[in-house]
Amino acid sequence: MTTVQSWLEFMPFAPVVGALFGAVVILLLFVAPVGGILTYVERKLAADFQERIGPNRVGPFGILQFLADAIKMILKEDTAPENADKFIYNLAPILVMMGSLGAFAAVPFASHIMGADLDVGLFYILAMGALVSLGILLGAWSSDNKWSLLGGMRAAAQIISYEIPLGLALLSVITISGSLSLREIVLDQAWVGQGSFWHVFHNPFVMVNFVIYFISALAECNRTPFDLPEAESELVSGFNTEFSGMRFGLYALAEFADIILFACVAAAVFFGGWQLPFFHPEQIFTDINLMGVNFAPLFVTLSTLLVFLGKIAFFIFVVMWIRWTLPRLRMDQLMSMCWKYLIPIAFVNLIGSLLWVWFFRGRSIVELLMGVA
Amino acid sequence: MSDTIVYLIAGFACLCAFLVALLPNILHAVIALIGCLFTTAALYAVLGADLLAALQVMVYVGGTIVVIIFAVMMTPDLYKNKFIERAGKYFFPTLVCSILGACFWYIYMQSASILPKAELVRFAITKKMGLALVGPYALLFEYVSVVLLFGLLGAIVIARTGERR
After folding, report:
1. DSSP 3-state assignment of A110?
2. B73 contacts in A (CB within 8 Å)?
3. CATH of domain B2-86
4. Where in chain B are the domains?
5. How far is B95 from chain A (nearest CA, A)?
6. What is the pLDDT of residue B163?
7. In this structure, is the dihedral angle defined by the CA atoms of residues A334, A336, A339 and A340, taken in order, positive or negative?
8. How close, in Å, is residue B28 to chain A by CA atoms?
9. Could you tell me the pLDDT band of residue A5, with boundaries at 50, 70 and 90?
10. Cα-Cα-Cα-Cα dihedral of A321, A322, A323, A327, to 10°?
11. Are the Cβ atoms of A156 and B66 closer than 8 angstroms?
12. What is the ipTM of this complex?
């Protein structure tokens, strides 16, 4: 018996540790490189919007820039302010990262690629977002800096406020599909010749609610025009001013992870997840035999995964597009927009959507137009 | 195997609860409270109550704790004030907690033989709970929301008293 085997026998919960390890590896293999590449994409897109060239030194078209940035962040000195509350200062970036990465467990990337098909998947994703606001607030407070504290207060107020219209917008879809499980919500939008279509086209109220979802998601991710918590022209760098090296890197990565997450939820809840109308990979890849092995399921999974990733990429592009289009809101405008406009509109839409479901017995516009009984 | 995990999580929750009571710095105590609430949610999740776990994280960690942190941040001279200065102050809380713990232990010992052995069954309970809340328990559910509404309105009234038109 080798040492590893005896160790495994000694550890009664080795499978759990293995599963955790696997989850960590998959998440970091997905989120960290994609987040890194997104920093490059963001800079390149910004350059395009402003008619500049952008990063072009490291590798072909500067595509290795994100690797150089990562190495720089890891090698940088890790400093902390003298009067910082060291324990909380060290804990805060970890909390933010936990919240961002943990939520990915319930995201359905393809029909068989999801961490856990939770019964309360959507609710779980919203709940994990709580850790992000906590981490931002604690990090801001512990770094003993006025700019940080102002940024942290803004972030907490903003995230807590915009969670309400976000939840209400998602609630209208939940009432249509009758489930909180993201897998079931996606499968509910399957195009089978006749019948249901993407939830965003279910009825006009859901369409408006998707816009509300998108606005609230921008605010939840602290993206422009809601980037008050880290407004460079006002607050130096906001809540992460005092963080250096990889701790700052964790905050930046968590921000990109949040954008990916909200794009995933938008794709899965409103835009049919891994499905496209008139595209049935199960029928295209029926029988692909190579050396006696049927590769069809692999091709089906890969094609559905590509569809899902394509939808995410589109949403992320829109988010970056908005960044170079709209100016930043003022704090009072931000609050009045949430409480005076988004929340009432979301409530009206929720009730309208419920009435639609009740009146038309759950049929969508597409079904009504096609005359489905 | 799952027993071991349950006891590990429960032990960690207890440890965090002790830290909440014993840490001198209020904000550190709040962090320990986060750990305690989060591990309780993990306990619910391991025991199959997914909805309860998500609710625990959303309501307590996301809502209550953030409010507590806001309140703590407004405390002047956070590092000078010690939560508990004298050892004598430990006496009364310890007494109360021991009596409470003894009561719980007594109830558990009395009912352990009667209770059915808990089996980990995973089934879709969320839908049933949702339907129950708008079905047989609809009146209670609405009553609670009306109480919450009064609370919110009261808060607004208190906050607006200084304002003159």
Report:
1. strand
2. 141, 149
3. 1.20.120.1200
4. 2-86, 123-165
5. 31
6. 59
7. negative
8. 8
9. very low
10. 140
11. yes
12. 0.73
